[in-house]
Amino acid sequence: MAPHIHTRTVHRPVEPVEGSTPLGTPLYQSHTFAFTDTDAMAAAFEGPGSPYVYARYGNPTVAALEAAVADLEGGTGAIASGSGMGAITSTLWALLGSGRRVVAQDRLYGGTEGLLDDLRERWGVDVVKVDVDDLDAVRAALTPGTDVLLLETIANPTGRVADLPALTALAREAGARTVVDNTFATPVLCRPVEHGADVVVHSATKYMGGHSDTIGGVAVFADSGTLAAVRARTAEFGAVLDPFAAWLISRGLSTLAVRVARQCASAQVLAERLAAHPGVTAVHYPGLPDAPGHATARRILDGGFGGVIAFELAGGLASGRAFASSVELAALAPSLGDVRTLVMHPASTSHRALDAAGLARAGIAEGLIRISVGIEDVEDLWADLERAVGVAVGVAVGA
Ligand SMILES: *Cc1c(COP(=O)(O)O)cnc(C)c1O
């Protein structure tokens, strides 16, 4: 007798794929995996290298993304997370602990700053901030017992590029491991492991995904011991990536290099034109020949200077607000790395709680605008930006 419909709706036949290779990444939207007998299942609980058993420990679609990003970054392996913060939190929790010490670049991504505050306040982690352009200051901060040097390849919003070979060498001398947030550069422009980094973290939400439709993170490792330690934390926090999000990010990787190349080329054009505009008082973009650290950027980045530009409008807060509300093609939105151009006015939005002195400490001028350049036609983008700068400058002179 055939099983009941209530049984057959559940036990549908599944066709294995054999004899050819799917070119799209197969989506295994399965959190659990079945076994023929208890011995086979027991073997799956043995840990890394054993069959999939439960998706918080591993899933084939997530593993495909991890293998792809590890390959792009030149690491031994990678761990995907539910967001960039999942990757950063799992990594720092694995490498730090109560009473341990981290030396961090001043002005990191806001979420990372919050995590460091929390590690200090709740767990007594010694957090030392340092200007990483000053190698002597970094050397002095890396006292014996320092566990981690925490950097970003391209700092936001200054666009300063970290001198990774020099910094990772200092960390190694001090016995510390270097963790680099490579979100802004992507492995297309920079592969920090090649410059001595131990761990590379990403918000895959940004360039890797690239289409405003998914959130995820990845950590890449130079050695398998650190990977295993972070894998355990990621599973413990449940900071794992859903298979469908992994599938979307893998799909995003297919076009990452062409998107980034075009975003860099357009950003270079827009940065140069903004720098020549009388309504703009400063442009922060590492591709400008007179940018501080341009020489470092040329050594560390390969194929462009990134897709994010920050610039300062004459007229401060009022101009910034007017600009951000006047763009039509660009979207007023947080995040970056999207196929669409996104603009932000931090002083009136993400950093609105800070007064003028606080903004200055954060390195954010009142008229500072951040643009994440998309893949639209560069002349269409310039027309939009030039018109909005005109509106902003008009506001500034009371027109
Ligand atoms: C967005 C971002 C993060 C955090 O990533 P989420 O995916 O939002 O958790 C970390 N670092 C940098 C540089 C980012 O831009």
Features:
399 residues; alpha/beta; Aspartate Aminotransferase, domain 2; Aspartate Aminotransferase, domain 1; 2 domains; seven-stranded mixed beta sheet; 12 strands
Strand and helix order: HHHEHEHEHEHEHEEHHHEHEHEEHEH
Count the domains: 2
What name does the CATH topology of the largest domain carry? Aspartate Aminotransferase, domain 2
Structure ligands: pyridoxal-5'-phosphate
Tally of separate helices: 15
DSSP strand count: 12
CATH architectural designation of the largest domain: 3-Layer(aba) Sandwich
The percentage of residues in β strands lies in 5-15%
CATH level-1 class of the largest domain: Alpha Beta
- Globular, elongated, flat, extended or rod-shaped: what is the shape? globular
**Structural class based on helices, strands and sheet pairing:** alpha/beta
- As laid out across the biggest beta sheet, the strand order is 1-7-6-5-4-2-3
Q: Fraction of residues in helices?
A: 40-55%
Report on the biggest sheet. 7 strands, mixed
Stretches with pLDDT under 50, minimum 5 residues: none
CATH superfamily descriptor of the largest domain:
Type I PLP-dependent aspartate aminotransferase-like (Major domain)
Q: Please give the radius of gyration in angstroms.
A: 23 Å
Distance between the termini: 85 Å
- Would you tell me the overall average pLDDT? 95
EC number: 4.4.1.2
Organism: Nocardiopsis aegyptia
Protein name: homocysteine desulfhydrase
Catalytic activity: L-methionine + H2O = methanethiol + 2-oxobutanoate + NH4(+); L-homocysteine + H2O = 2-oxobutanoate + hydrogen sulfide + NH4(+) + H(+)
